[in-house]
Amino acid sequence: MSLMLMVLLTILAVGLLGLSTIELRKSGHETARMRAQANARLALSLAIGRLQETAGPDQRVTARADIKDSSGQNGRWVGVWRSTRKQGDVDLPAIRWDERESVLVDARSTASSDDGFEGWLISGDDDVTRLVRFA
Predict the structure, then answer these.
(1) Beta partners for 25?
(2) Which residues, listed in sequence order, are joined to residue 91 by a DSSP beta bridge?
(3) What pLDDT, in 10s, does the model give residues 5-35?
């Protein structure tokens, strides 16, 4: 009788040990999942912050890099450009309606090196990504 009770207690102990091992693994996976979700939320917040910083004012436009050069290897990068041009202390729209002439006037200059480029909306070192003019 006591031998049977000892075997029963041993089986019960092994079963509880197995159950606790499973629960411990499950809690480890849950911790990793929660950490991954927190990292994803942080990355999203950083990306939205970068978008607001770069493309924030309503006077900026975004476009894919392949709009400039379709042969580029980074054609899916998204860039930000100003849609205004400085004239003295005033920001004028790059393309505006001229009331006197009744025509659209394009204030952009092909001779100017300033094309209004603000930066790329990509992850990485900001100092390096700002140096890349076209993907």
Answers:
(1) none
(2) 86
(3) 888 888 888 888 888 888 878 877 888 889 9
